[in-house]
What does this fold into?
Amino acid sequence: MYRDGKGVPQSSEVAVKWFRKAAEQENAKAQYNLGVMYYEGESVPQSDEEAVKWYRKSAEQGLADAQYNLGFMYHKGKGVPQSDGEAVKWYTKSAEQENAKAQFNLAYMYGNGHGVPQSDEDAITWLKKSAEQGNQRAQAKLGEMSQKV
It folds into this structure.
């Protein structure tokens, strides 16, 4: 509420305070939101390491958006050593919960053999799942691929 100013005056500083209180009580959504604020440097010092810490806590509780973000951090080596294997692990957990961005990134990993054996079949499977959810990047990629056939 405070972060978006819904029903109260917008205040990122107050949002951080309440997210932290809830995050410390193992609230997965608050942990995720705190991770986002650290990643973006919103009312806290920007810190990829702190973002990873909170994303991980949330991801381990099964929150798909946190799993995607943690996968992204491993994929890009932000706040953690770069690891395609770890990226695939977290993208897969998120993709299996219908996260379209995770499905798209997982398709990329399979298509290029990053962290998994290269597999056009698996890449297309995940790309289709992402596209079916309205992911425009996945739709465009499928369109490009169909023109090459």
User: Anything to note?
Assistant: Helices lie at 12-24, 28-40, 48-60, 64-76, 84-95, 100-112, 120-132, 136-148. The chain has a mean pLDDT of 92.
